[in-house]
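BUG: 3D viewer hangs when loading the predicted structure for this chain

Environment: internal workstation, default settings.
Expected: structure renders.
Actual: progress bar stalls at 90%.

Input used:
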Amino acid sequence: MISDVTTRTAYARNSWLGWPGAFVVLIILAFVLFTLIPGTVEGKSLAVLHGLCAQQPTHSYYFGEARLPFDARMTGIYSGFAVSAAYLVLRGRWRYAAVPDVKLAALLVMLILPLAIDGVNSLLKDVQLPYLYEPRNIVRTLTGLMLGTSLATFVWLLVAQTAFRPSRRSNLPIWSGVRELALALGLQIALAASISLSGLPVRIPLTYLLMASAAIVVTGLLLPFVLLVTRSEQQAAETAEIARPATLALLGALLFIAAMAGGRFFLELVLGVSNQVAT
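Structure tokens produced before the viewer hung:
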């Protein structure tokens, strides 16, 4: 009897060994495929993310003659998400699933408002209506960073609450308080400053960061659906046990991003609209 239990336990553990490896292999394959496709990093990244962003040249950051794959606002959103997520990982907040207190939750909601105001202001200028102030890329980036922080908080809580057993996740909030959130925002402001300087050495790393962040965001949003479909929500006791649904969600995210880009290219071809993607 004990032998059977031991055998089943060992089999269950071994059955998961392949999925963490598959997750890593999928990431490596995506990177290798991107590298092997002919073209510049600028042109390929613009093409990959073509379906997720308007990529307006006048709203983009340029490093010499090359630009980032996202415009300034989306650069802020996705780099803000990446910085916030990296901060939480380094602080050991994995599996933290408690909603922040009312004051902090209200602040996270308020972080969305500057982007809404700046977006409306920019739209008013684009359609030649009276607007409040002259839109600037640095303001687009800063307001995007704020939204990226709120987005990271939402995705983090969503994954923690749907993936892990209640007994195996922490009931502590992922942000300890307003001061810690302010510290994370300070790090993002420093990133925004480095982007606005348009220093040539940061373009390539930042391009890969933005592509990775986009894939992580979509994966995080798809993961709860994968967990529900596979009936494995709130079942994981260890992180390795979410490797299978995470791999499926990552594959779905990559396919979704590719489909969105392909769909936009197709519409532009049909409508005769210039896509403005570098070659």
